[in-house]
Design the sequence.
């Protein structure tokens, strides 16, 4: 099996053109379309951010999680200062993953991915574990139009009183990456 | 007193399940506090601002 491996020049700029065969046979490379953009790792946005300053979750209230610290944000599409949301500027399908952790001693904890202000995916409901803390996850694939669509991470707990998130990179986080172009 | 506490005071019969299904309280972390994002309870009317004040 043959391979075609593009290699960037020293300055990181330039282009590579693949010419299709003149017949309708022996086609071994499929280009998205004549004017399309081939997606490579360099133009497929990815982000990872976490809660570095605890968010207070009032009981029985869906609360947006503050994600103040970015681990990476390859296309500058994550807002870690004001709205704590991911608004990719490249249209396509994205895998999203989120987690929320608290020290609930009663009730349950869950989290959800909100798209454009509405619940898109809700994670599992986990009963409180006062000894270990409680951690919940949510994941899913979502389509983004590349301009106005955005996602945020929300948490919910039913302890009976306000609880705060564990503000560490491995407890309360949100990340995602493009998996397919539009 | 939180919004949840005020609503539970008005309607003690509400259950946690109600708040997971027909009622949604929300906080968008924008400094505006908790609010009722959805109220679709089949028998109890949505509380007024005066009742929640």
Sequence:
């Amino acid at each position: 099996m043959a391979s075609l491996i593009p290699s960037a020049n020293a300055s990181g700029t330039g282009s590579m053109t693949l010419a299709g065969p003149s017949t309708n046979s022996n086609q071994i490379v499929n280009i998205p379309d004549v004017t399309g953009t081939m997606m490579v790792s360099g133009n497929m946005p990815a982000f990872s951010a976490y809660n570095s300053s605890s968010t207070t979750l009032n009981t029985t209230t869906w609360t947006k999680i503050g994600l103040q610290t970015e681990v990476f944000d390859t296309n500058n599409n994550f807002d870690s200062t004001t709205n704590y949301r991911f608004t990719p500027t490249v249209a396509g399908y994205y895998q999203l993953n989120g987690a929320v952790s608290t020290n609930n001693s009663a009730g349950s904890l869950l989290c959800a991915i909100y798209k454009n202000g509405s619940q898109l995916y809700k994670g599992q409901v986990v009963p409180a574990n006062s000894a270990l803390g409680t951690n919940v996850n949510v994941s899913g694939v979502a389509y983004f139009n590349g301009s106005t669509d955005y996602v945020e991470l929300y948490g919910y707990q039913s302890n009976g009183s306000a609880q705060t998130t564990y503000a560490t990179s491995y407890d309360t986080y949100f990340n995602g990456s493009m998996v397919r172009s539009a | 007193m939180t919004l949840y506490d005020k609503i539970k005071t008005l309607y003690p019969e509400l259950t946690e399940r109600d708040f997971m299904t027909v009622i949604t309280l929300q906080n968008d972390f924008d400094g505006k506090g908790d609010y009722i994002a959805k109220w679709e309870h089949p028998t109890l009317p949505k509380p007024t601002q005066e009742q929640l004040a």
